[in-house]
Fold each of these.
Amino acid sequence: MTRRGYLIKRVLQAIFSLWIIATILFFLFRMGLPDPTAALVTEGLNAEQRAAVRAQFGLEEPLWRQYVLFLTNAVQGEFGTSFSYRAPVSEIVWERLGNTMILMLAAIVLAYAIGVPLGAWLSWRRGSRTDTAGIFFGLMFRSAPMFWTGMIAILIFGVGLSLFPTSGMRTLPYDADGFLDKIFTLDFLWHAALPVLIVALYYLGSPLLIMRNTMLEVYGEDFIEMARAKGLPERDILYKHAARNALLPVVTQLAVTIGLAAGGQVVVEVVFSWPGLGREILNAVRTSDFPLAQASFLIMAAFVITLNLLVDILYTTLDPRVSFR
Amino acid sequence: MTLPPFLRAAMGPLRIMMQDRLAVIGMCVLGLIIAMALFAPLLSTHDPRHINEIEDGSVLSRGAAGWELQESLGPLALNDAAHRDGISLIVGRGGMGWSREGAGAWSALDLPTEADLHAVALSPEGRAIVVGDGGVILLQDGADWQPVPAPEANLRGVVWLDGARALLVGTNEEILLLDASSGDLSTVDSPVGRDFPLQSVALDVDGTALIVGERGLAIRYDPEDGSATLERLGSSRDLNHIHISEGGAALVVGERGTLLRRESADSDWSADPAPDTRAMRAGWIGDDGAALAAGRNGLIMEWDGSAWNIAPTQSERHLRALLVVGDEMLALGSDRFVTRLAPPSREHWFGTDHLGRDLFSQNVHGSQIALLVGFLGATLVVLIGTNVGLIAGYYRGRTETVLMRTVDVMYGIPFEPFALILVLLFQPSLTIVILAVSLLTWRTVARLIRSQVLSLRERPFVKAARVAGASDLRIMYLHIFPNVLPLVFLELAIIVGVSIIAEATLSFLGLGPPQAISWGGILHDARLSGAWRTAWWWNLPPGIFIMTTVLSVFFISRSLEVVANPRLRARQ
């Protein structure tokens, strides 16, 4: 299959996946919440507003009409108005998505930047105490729930030593023109340090262990034997010959991780009061903000699928051996 | 003995696993945690949901910053205290008594009774009298205590009228006059006579005694003519304690924050507005107008000359008495109080939470939900994933396309948000938690097993089986399946860990099964209460338990990886 054909097929698949998820989401919501406006009488929707919401989601019409309306709205990016914010859902969701992505990408980059070289080095010292300790700590941070490590980090660095702020993205009040203006400040870095570190520590384990194991496999290959026979220094064999060839599985794992990054880590956002999309979904669930919950989830899924798609395409470009199946 | 082939095949991997030190440690730790879950009711020291209370002879002392907790005087509550000429006495429940000279250390009195003692008084000559439940009256006689025979009466208050006579009051409106030299008791007729409980008595500056009791009752007893007359203090609430200073200032405290104050012997009683409406049990007023009142839950109010203020206290103990000696101010208690946020002690190994529940027991019980969800969820995941992978890999074609597209769709769904939505739409329960964990996680297993099966189905032994006429099911489950078994176990181990973390996460977000005790739920409570920033014993153990459990599972899975991938074995 040609590269072009592969691309078209992958894009169609992604659209198909998104459609299925949207459908599942629609029926889940109609099953669980037949009348979403009824759940929020406490929030003070008056009869008129309720009627408007019902008309917007077509709740008076037969189920298939509602479904078509839902899909049309989703394609047009029309997600309605949030019950609790009284603002268009899409505006809220895009801003929160940005906050989530900046946190997750920073953490993933940090984790892989440390994990990959460390894993290679551990494989070189295989069987030693350092190796065992490395595996132990890598697995330990992978086993510790992030909300707990986050709480402990806040206790030590936030409350105890007062080194870092314990919540939010910026010191309040602040004004920023747009997203970039908000994040390109020292204040942001200072706020992001703890949450990024906690997520990075969690992700650190997988590049570390995958790199180490793949390196162990690569050491048995003939070309390493060859390099050794040539009398190359061990360091060169490790980093120039073995490490490069061991990168593929790590990159695969990186792709999967980035692909799911938009899903975020709800608990980290909750513990550090990070205004991300995951925390927004939780709030929407708690306040029964049905349009916000539905749209947040759909946009999050769309983003995950798009990221997966991009990563796949990039992957085939990077490694010509991966055939366009 | 002939073992089935798949069992015999399982023995080899087990041997490999035993060579890995980390895996052996993992298996031991996991075994311990499983044992903990199985024997949780036996291991836990308390009922994890029980709100624990203890009684304590608590002493709080007024420091610069507030009332600070001092070393306890025994395990029983302290009820009353008296002081005169450098001698201080305290009496409490269960016949407990303490004395000290000056500012020395408290020493226990050897009182010949087990009854609950409620009041103590010192005569101008320094002779002590103690009264309590069951008509107990003890008169000090040098170093000894002489019991005075008395009718059954629950005595609450006592005061010396002079060096020889004491007035005693009880809960059935008893007013008794004791002649200390002869030991004779005579009854004084109350002007009410309706069995109202009398709580406290104090000597006024004119030599009369003022008695207070239930429903604002106040009776003045005049020893000159032996008459008892009703007096109005201006309140109809239950009055608990009266104190009159030597100069004639007086304070009466009672239920619902009742504070009645008299500035001097000549002035009228006035009801002060109280900053809190809980019951006040003890009051003290000095000649200079300074006043204190103490009550339940560590409530202490101080009069600053114009208003009552709640003083900062270190504890929530129920206070019953005040003792003021010179500059030193002590508040004494405490009846059974809820042991909130107690740090680890011999009684509560991991301390208690904000409701006084034992955290060690909660942590022990938490292992049950964690392992249940962990293993049940993982089994479900592996069951679905393995079958999907087997079928997709074996049949290929249209079946494979449909199944693997489904897996692709699954990869588009982020886990935590999906679980949140599930819980929003359906009420939180154990089933929903397990479902949320297993509905998405099988995607990885299906992909891995399929890729393995794809290569296995081309192997000669599969072709041979097919030629021999074996059915598809037989080939799939008897020939191919045993070969992917190590991979299945590896995934099982990893997903047990993932499931435990997922359950903890949902519980932490407050979406776990309600009423269930889980590690994530303990942390949820800690975060919600806000006390987690100080109560380290609350949030440290559950996390360590989660981490240890998952870590031990991961250690096991790492050695399974060596089993599943022989190439790793050769290099190590």
Amino acid sequence: MAAIASQEGSRRGPADGPRAGSAGTLRSEFTKIRSVRSTYWTLFLLVVAGIAWSVAYCAGEVSHWSTTPAQQRLGFDPTQASIVGLALLGQLVIVVLGTLAITSEYSTGMIRTSLTVMPRRGVLYGAKAAVFTAAALIVALLTSFASFFIGQALLTSTHVSATLSQPNVWRAVIGAALYVALCGLFAFGLGAILRSTAGAMTAAYGLLFLVPQLAKALPSGWYADLDRWLPGGDVVNAITGTQNVNANANLFSAWGEFAVFGTYTAIVLIAGLVLLLRRDA
Amino acid sequence: MIEARGLTKRYASVAAVDDLSFRIRPGIVTGFLGPNGAGKTTTMRLILGLDHPTAGTVTINGRAHPRLPRPMHEVGALLDARAVHGGRSARNHLLCLAQTNGIPRRRVDEVLGVVGLAGVAAKRSKGFSLGMSQRLGIAAALLGDPQILMFDEPVNGLDPEGILWIRTLMRGLAAEGRTVFVSSHLMSEMEHTADHVVVIGRGRLIADCAMAEFIARSSGQAVLVRTPEPDALARAVTAAGARVAGAGDGDPRGLEVSGLTEERIGDIAFAHGIRLHHMAPSRASLEQAFMELTADSVEYHAGPAASRQPSHVGMEN
């Protein structure tokens, strides 16, 4: 039975080692996210959805550009055409990954093991959210820039293609990726609150898609006042648009809409943390 | 050392754990016994800080579990072998646990070897049999080389080889001076593994004593006797003040005589000219002792009866 005790040097005793904390937990969460297939599938889908939309949309514009009326050409936003797909489709995909990042711990029972080895629950929660955000943001940013450049390359023949140096373009390209990451975090927080994959995904889709649609049934005056406060919906247009002529007068600026949705995300994340700290695991 | 003081956990109006106090000492295997639903798992979850107690405290080496600086080095636990992400390989599962406590990667391969899973380290654990999952859970518990180990129903559903392996492992861990705390509802299992028992029923402490003492106190000693003349022997020993159970000509188990020593029974048989074919002490089984002790709590569970004080057998301290 001597083999059970670890060999010299492969372990440090309780007294002389560093306290188990954030650094190790971040490494642990990175191992978790990179060692399950669902991560690769969802991120792959995110990349494909973003780029495929850009190709389809921009190539489509080029094919009927010669017959597009001048008025419509003025309203065409080449930046938005290439990246809006990442935001629109990407939010659908990232909600799955954001939810699973936390609810898979509950559905498998892994949460009990995780909390036994890292009982400081806030550290575990923070590390998990940080690793997910980093993974989602990096992949979304790469996809956003790739979608942008591929789209603009396709649009060259229209002579309206955008460059990063034009007004609002940087903001839109980075904003599309930030929006996707934020949607993922929103779903992550809902996952922490509801502890169920199906429940959290339903709640996330309901709040991001259904609520903005239902709001349209309100009297138009009310809707105009409410629109800027809604998560999802028109926010995508505000964030990915670069041309003021298209701006929706009901909404705040792009960063204003970010602040609104960011606040909702923060509320959901904090609620998830408080519940994790207080509830029995 | 695990120490519980007045530990209580209530769900709505039901007390799953009710004012439990005990100490689990190093160097021995302590069995944690009770019928299903007695509160064993809840107690273990309270020890690990997974559940918050309604009242009372429980400490590991003097500290509440969430305050342990490096938890994996102080306590290793196997609560539910299936509580792993099945999509992750055995090695990655152990690695993500090890990293939280700064345990190096080579220790992961070391424990995989100890539990005999080195050959399937790269396989996803969803394909594992229950026995393999159990070994993976034990590997996780051993990662930090902790002084305290807790296992919740570790032999449930295992084949005889797996049971023997776990039994040997637990005895080995205790022999190294570690604290081994293992729960079971199978009394016969603990009889061969545990040195000490903590028995609970309906969340309350029923007994906390050495295994031998538990058996001895719970049920009287009896002697098993086989004879071709059971009726005559039964009359003779009953006349001498013994109680007789079993019996009948065709009963191959013979008579179970309690209240007399083997010597007295032999002398009485000789005096009456009764032939004996077999005579041996029949140690009361742990199963019986357990049933007797927890009868109240199980009964109480089935329907509201008068609340009875649990009978403490050989309380420590």
